[in-house]
Design brief:
Elements: E1 6-11, E2 24-33, E3 36-47, E4 50-56, H1 66-75, E5 80-89, E6 99-107, H2 137-146, E7 152-157, H3 166-175, E8 179-181, H4 187-193, E9 197-207, H5 219-239
Parallel strand pairs: 1-4, 1-5, 5-9, 6-7, 7-8
Antiparallel strand pairs: 2-3, 3-4, 5-8, 6-9
Helix pairs in contact: 2-5
Length: 248
């Protein structure tokens, strides 16, 4: 049975057959954690020496506790996480169907608590004196090599499923947010606490509430298809990646 150190959280709408590009499923688990069930997590085998964990991760009103997802990943030996989400363009420069790499975030979720530090059994050491980028620059660079020209963006994380109001859209833009996302926060902070590399890739699916809502012309579907095609090469690059700035 191959092992995998990378988990891809799929928070975009894909046909089930699309993930076949990552190989056959050789293991599937529902993981019971102190924070509830996580999964199903599928181990997909690309070759005898190459595999990746994949988990569908579209947010729901009865959403799995994000701590369960990150805790389960740690127990499985995952060291790096790619969270691929769909988001709303706050920045008027961004267009529907455009993918962006996330390099920073604003937390605007009501999920509490969004930390592991309150639980002694996690074995975490609090070090309030250290500050590092919440998103792994090496993972982001790998994606940009495969999808050249991707802009970097600041995400504001909000609760699923409520859309922002026009006033909130203006406020988020004033704060410096480029994209509104439902599935990257608080996961990014939890992964950082677990000392795991984490990167966010967001495909723009629509426009902010205070922008003109033009009809979709198939841009999102075409963009998702292009991104799926790069995943096997990304898995190979990350599997052979040396120690990065995140310390993994």
């Amino acid at each position: 049975m191959p092992t995998a150190s990378l988990l891809i959280l799929i928070a975009v709408l894909l046909p089930p057959s699309a993930l076949g590009i990552l190989g056959e499923v050789v293991d599937e688990r529902i993981y019971l954690t102190p924070y509830g069930e996580a999964g199903p997590l599928a181990l997909r085998k690309l070759s005898d020496s190459l595999a990746v964990w994949v988990q569908p991760y579209t947010g729901l009103p009865t959403r799995t506790d994000p701590r369960a997802t990150i805790f389960a990943a740690r127990q499985l030996g995952v060291q790096r996480i790619l969270n691929w989400d769909m988001g709303i363009a706050i920045n008027p420069v961004l267009q529907r169907g455009q993918p962006v790499i996330v390099d920073d975030y604003i937390g605007w979720t009501s999920h509490q608590p969004d930390t592991f530090f309150s639980d002694a059994h996690t074995g975490l050491d609090i070090n309030l004196g250290s500050v590092r980028s919440p998103f792994c620059p090496e993972l982001g660079s790998a994606i940009q090599q495969l999808l050249p020209g991707l802009p970097e963006a600041t995400v504001v994380g909000v609760d699923f499923l409520r859309r922002e109001t026009r006033a909130e859209a203006r406020m988020f833009r004033h704060w410096g947010a480029d994209v509104l996302s439902y599935n990257l926060v608080p996961e990014v902070a939890l992964a950082q606490e677990m000392k795991m590399c984490y990167t966010g890739l967001v495909t723009i699916s629509g426009y902010a509430a205070d922008r003109t809502q033009s009809e979709s012309m198939g841009e999102v579907r075409a963009s998702l298809s292009t991104t799926v095609q790069m995943l096997p090469t990304f898995v190979e690059m990350v599997t052979h990646m040396r120690r990065c700035e995140c310390g993994v």
